[in-house]
Amino acid sequence: MHPKHNGSMKKITALLLTVVFLISPLAAASFADYENTHENTGDLAADIVAVAITQLGYKEGSLDGTVQGDNDCTKYGLWYGLNYQPWCAMFVSWCANQAAVPVSIIPRHASCDSGMNWFKSHGRWQYAPYYGGTYTPKPADIIYFGYKYGQEYDATHVGIVYYVEEGKVCVLEGNSSAKVQTVKYNLDTSYILGYGVPDYTSSAASGDPYPLGIWKVTASALNVRDDPDVDGTHVIGIRYEGDLVEILEVQNEFWGKILLEDGSFGWISLRYCEVVEAAQKPDPRPDPDPPATEYTVSFELNGGSVGPSPVTVEEGGTAKIPSDIPERDGYAFLGWAAGPAAEKAEYLPGDSFTPAKDVILYAVWTEGETDGLLYMADLNRKAWYMKAVTFCYENALMSGTSKYSFSPSGTLTRAMLVTVIGKVCILSGGEIPAAGEQVFPDVKPGKYYFKYVSWAKSLGIAAGDENGNFIPNGAVTREQLALMLMRAADALGMQTAEGDAALLDAFADRESCSGWAVKGLSWACANGILAGSNGNIKPRDPATRAEAAQMIYRFAGLIPSGDD
User: In CATH, what is the architecture of 210-278?
Assistant: First the structure.
């Protein structure tokens, strides 16, 4: 058995892989030690090996790779979005990414089994001699280790073939004795299951790794966002494994633009998709160097000062609104609009659009202070949620996602929800004790929500998943929100009505309610906290920030005042 790997301790489950696609964005960091100093040559096989060599000696335990530990903390896990998890497959994926190997040639994977099965399903697999194979591995092949149980192959470790000599294969591997190192194995050992043989010479290898065209989702569930980034507050939909999507544009390296059902557009991460059919590139021979048409977006300050400079883009290009905020004494800036007399902003700093002509955008102002809900241009003042949002904002239960936006259609994370429930407790005269010991491995001391999660765990309001993790950045579904509020009511000794499962029969999607959530949903309906939408209760939909504010507002109204 490999010195650090066994099936029970280091196996990443399919459920954990599903979680990575729904959690919040990857953090960015700079790693001075073990920086990839290799300059790619375009020879993908040579480049991935060269990249891996630059990492030899990197130790798990700290992001810079210089402090030995046994906690699975690595820059590779941080990059992938699964830090503090077994990282041999993430190391291989990181090396492939650094070497510019397209995901259509080496898939991004954190599970050894999923990587092995991908090569098998794509006809790029060779069994090792112990399992009947006759293949001799080559440098840059992806080698999978593990065991066979009956007819099932269980991959528990993976690396990159460095070289083969004298009946042995030398492997560049991560998560090997808690570090990146080379290890030699006999070619005929039973520990080697076989080899993924990437098609480094395919047409996809020499082209764009993220081409326009038809792609297939490979993640169990993949968020659709309204911007080409990983801001967890801007999830506007979900695509599921096997869904085919047409990628119309690519930005920020791997974010693909797709057309939504309502005619608007969204963005998905192509890291969790594979190309099915690349769009044909136009023939460059007619008019190979046509003159470029440029459009200018100018900014009229409308009485203000210190505004942004004009933005110039080529025809068909994307213009991004600068982040510069103009100033005007006695007024608050709301954003930009196409007309000088507009009262509501059409564009906010950081927004993008494709101009079809020269454009002048005018600053939109409102009299008053520069803080508060009044200046959040994405709120509809006449919407059903406005009273609840105002209550949550004015009582410091929820804040905006930026100075000029509340993101009512965005999602609330589990950490945010527990923090809001704790603040409701404080608002009603309760206390949140200082946090003691760490209660979940993925809830670290120093986080703003640390003491609230500890408090919620101690009262039975919040619980972890089957792996013992809290998943602080996971989106909250409507049924999860209802259940946590019911538990909070019980923990705070609130006198509330008992729920009756029969109440759920009024909703057309009653059968979609999870069994564990029926009690919480029934309680929420009985106490006027949760209502349906067009005859549906939508239990498994992520709760939007506006919906969460409404439920929190109604929940707070059930708490008796100190005068009673």
Answer: Roll (2.30)
Residue 188: the pLDDT is: 94
Residue 12: count other Cβ atoms within 10 Å of its Cβ.
Answer: 22
Beta bridge partners of 145: 157, 192
d(CA 63, CA 173): 17
Kindly report the pTM of this predicted structure: 0.41
Q: Are 100 and 47 in contact (CB under 8 A)?
A: yes
Q: What is the largest CA-CA distance in the chain?
A: 85
Q: Quick check: 517 and 509 in contact, CB under 8 A?
A: no
- pLDDT, tens digit, for every residue of 97-111? 999 888 889 988 999
Residue ranges per domain, the chain? Answer: 7-196, 210-278, 294-370, 386-556
Which of helix, strand or coil describes residue 287? coil
Please tell me the distance from the alpha carbon of residue 265 to that of residue 519, in angstroms, as a whole number: 37
- Is 515 within 8 Å of 501 (Cβ atoms)? no
Which CATH number applies to 7-196: 2.40.128, 1.10.1060, 3.30.420, 3.90.1720? 3.90.1720
DSSP states along 495-508: --PPP-GGGGGGST
Integer Cα distance of 416 and 398 in angstroms: 9
Say if residue 532 is exposed, middle or buried (CB neighbours under 10 Å; 0-12, 13-18, 19+): middle
> Is the torsion defined by CA of 37, 41, 47, 53 positive or negative?
negative
Q: What are phi and psi of 331, to 5 degrees?
A: -135, 155
State the virtual CA torsion across 310, 297, 364, 378 in degrees, nearest 10. -120
Closest CA to 272 of 233, 242, 227: 242
Q: Is domain 294-370 annotated with CATH 3.40.50?
A: no
Residue with tokens 């004009």: 310
**29-52 pLDDT per residue, tens:** 334 568 899 999 888 999 999 999
Residues written for the chain: 564
Burial class (CB in 10 A: 0-12, 13-18, 19+), 305: exposed
Q: Which residues contact 187 (CB under 8 A, 6 or more apart)?
A: 128, 129, 136, 137, 164, 167, 168, 169
Contact (CB, 8 A) for 92 and 174: yes
Least confident of 252-256, 269-273, 290-294, 361-365: 290-294
User: Using an 8 Å Cβ cutoff, are 212 and 248 in contact?
Assistant: yes
* One-letter amino acid for residue 103 of the chain: V
